[in-house]
Every structure is written in structure tokens, then in C-alpha cells.
Amino acid sequence: xxxxxxxxxxxxxxxxxxxxxxxxxxxxxxxxxxxxxxxxxxxxxxxxxxxxxxx
Length: 55
Prior knowledge:
The structure is a single chain. The protein has one helix spanning 6-11, and strands at residues 13-21, 24-32, 46-49, 52-54. It is mainly β. The two termini are 21 Å apart.
């Protein structure tokens, strides 16, 4: 279970993403200031933990 700070939720969004790293497809969660992400968008992300990213 992931708990998101309610204050953070006002300005950020949480997305479940699928990404490719070294030719291998992986899944994770992305915390971002963007309201909307479209398929095939490229986003620079920073890893927070094994499957949680910020971008």
C-alpha cells in the first residue's frame, strides 16, 4: 500500500506507468506535477525507490 501525502496530492498526480529500460519493459509508479500523460510521451524521471519515480 502506498500512502500519498494529501498536501502533495493538491499539486501532484500519481500514475501507473510502463517504461523501457535497456530494452526491457518494466512497470512502476510515477509522481509528477503533470495533470495528464499520453501514451508514448517521453518524460525524464528520477528513481525514488525500486518501483517509484518522480518526473
